[in-house]
Amino acid sequence: MLLQPYKGFFDGKGLGDTKKIFKERRNKMKKLKKRTRSMGIAFLFAFWLWPALGLAMDNGECLDCHNDEGLTREQGRGSLFVDAAQFHDSAHHGQGIMCIDCHADIAELNYDNDVPHAKNLAPVACSSCHEAEQDAFANSVHTQISSKGITMTCYACHDYHYATPLAAASVGQRDNNFCAKCHNPYQSHDWLPKKEEHFAFVECTVCHVPEVQRHIHLKFFDLVTNQFYKGEDILAILGLGSDQFMPMIDTDNDGTISRPEFEILELMLRQKNVHAIFHAELVAEMAPVAHQVMRGGAERNCEKCHTAESPYFEAVSIVLTKEDGGVDHHQVDRGVLKSYSLSHFYLYAGTRVKLLDMIGILLIGGAGCGVLGHLAIRIVTLRGRRQKKEKS
After folding, report:
1. Which of 67, 170, 186, 357 has the maximal Cβ count within 10 Å?
2. DSSP conformation letters of 57-87
3. What's the CA dihedral at 261, 215, 279, 167 to 10 degrees?
């Protein structure tokens, strides 16, 4: 048995055949070792890794308890309720974030205890994922007020269980979710003319974060139903997927919706019984720097908006929500801002509609001509009116 590998040599087949036999045996041993290694890995996975994965907590396990509206801290100090439906629509759930990704000090659940995990958990460290946002926030006025004994946290503005994507949100939704929780803009901004118009159509961070990128966001408003349409509503009305919108509207394939193409979009909507005008708002890009809110450094230069070549109007877009919850910004030519299709967005010297200017000039000129004509007639007929008065 021990001489089996040398069988060819002793049979007189020569050294060459023996080498061949050795080579075949080595190959067989290599295959056997590889098979053994694979089986070992499979064994390890089956008896060690797989049970660990099976015991991993999913969000459903947490919501089994926390979806109870009556769940509170000890002695009723605050609710521990998490609305499962709202959480499902949140940005974190959409990104596949697990509860234990944020509450990282929960290693396992022990259902033998009244509370299956530690009662006092460590504060959630948002910066572990949002490092750039944390750096910008650290240089903001909201961090500087800590010198007055006021501590601002991420969840003072953001509801971390229900954080929703805001790229497609309106000015009202953005400001009401954040700034309006603490600030009443009408109690300040005394230098600002037409406060109501500015607060309705310009997001706070447009002025209070000078470094942020800005764009005009066009929203669909139906004059018949008197309601705004979301991006996904418009796609459903047109019967298009998010990846089909631009190929259908951008007929010249230049990546920008021109004014004629914009008018075709309006026609398509009218054919679907949507009689839309477009509501324009000046909003900030959803970028980390948007957290660097300044007070003393806020923008007060009116000419940044109210000039014909304002840089704030270079980026005009229609924002549509995609099927996966993300958003697409579809670039629109800024010439659309000078059309009748827009509502409440005629900025003096910024978005001038030339035809409206001509009509205004004609009205003013007509009124002036009427006054001058009236004076001229009075002067010409002055002598006759005096004579008539003397005779009477």
Report:
1. 170
2. --HHHHHHHHT-TT-B-GGG-SB----HHHH
3. 100
Determine, yes or no, domain membership for 55: no
Q: 1: domain range?
A: 1-25
Q: Are 174 and 166 in contact (CB under 8 A)?
A: yes
Q: How many domains does the chain have?
A: 2
Per-residue pLDDT tens for 37-95?
555 554 444 444 444 444 457 888 899 999 998 888 876 678 899 999 999 888 888 88
pTM value is 0.68
Rounded to whole angstroms, the Cα distance separating 241 from 231 reads 11
Torsions phi, psi of 128, nearest 5?
Answer: -65, -25
CA–CA gap between residue 171 and residue 64 (Å, rounded): 36
What digits encode the pLDDT tens for the residues 152-198? 888 888 888 988 778 878 888 888 778 888 889 998 888 888 888 88
pLDDT at residue 134, as a whole number: 92
Number of neighbouring beta carbons within 10 Å of residue 210: 15
DSSP three-state, residue 248 = helix
Count Cβ atoms below 10 Å from residue 184 Cβ, excluding itself.
Answer: 8
Classify strands 276-284 and 214-222 as parallel, antiparallel or unpaired. antiparallel
The pLDDT-based confidence of 330 (bands split at 50, 70, 90) is very high
Identify residue 367 by its one-letter amino acid code.
A
- Which two structure tokens, joined as six digits, stand for 171? 């000015």
